[in-house]
Design goal:
two-stranded antiparallel ribbon, alpha+beta
Length: 170
């Protein structure tokens, strides 16, 4: 990590995101959400390696950036159930990685498009330098049996300037 304080990282990150928004035409909110998806994914992979599969729009964004679309949530798959997902998410959000982000999560009650027990929604709040950075949604879907084979993707590159490595996920 090239920054000594959370405030210094936040200032540098905010400036880089503003510049990227201007040059790409993407909204600042979308870029901020992608940063949070990246940092949350780093924690999920470290806290519960091999138990999460990245799915949905964020996975497509990483695989096919030219065809990406804005999304408010990150979809993940698991082969177990809500209790294990919640425990792993709590462990992930408690991790202190060298990125100064602080995460909080809570179970939401508004995922009703799937059969009971097939998926669960969490609201995730990311703070940086003692202030809200962005809020996102994490939707976890459950399958019976083992997870399907998945390729490995690399995360967004928004924090490479700060010396943080890309996250590898499946």
């Amino acid at each position: 990590m090239r920054y000594q304080t959370a405030a210094a990282l936040r200032a540098a990150l905010e400036e880089r995101l503003r510049q990227r928004a201007q040059t790409t035409g993407r909204s600042l909110s979308r870029l901020r959400k992608q940063v949070v998806f990246d940092r949350l994914l780093a924690r999920l992979v470290q806290a519960a390696p091999g138990r999460w599969i990245l799915k949905g729009a964020v996975a497509l964004d990483l695989r096919l950036p030219a065809r990406s679309r804005a999304t408010k949530d990150m979809d993940v798959g698991r082969s177990d159930g809500e209790a294990h997902a919640t425990a792993d998410l709590l462990a992930a959000t408690a991790l202190e990685l060298p990125d100064f982000f602080v995460f909080r999560s809570e179970r939401a009650r508004d995922l009703d498009e799937v059969p009971e027990g097939a998926a669960v929604r969490y609201r995730v709040r990311a703070e940086l330098a003692g202030r809200l950075f962005e809020e996102v949604i994490l939707d976890a879907g459950f399958s019976h049996g083992t997870l399907p084979p998945a390729d490995t993707v690399r995360s967004f590159d928004y924090l490479e300037f700060a010396g943080l490595p890309l996250v590898k996920s499946r």
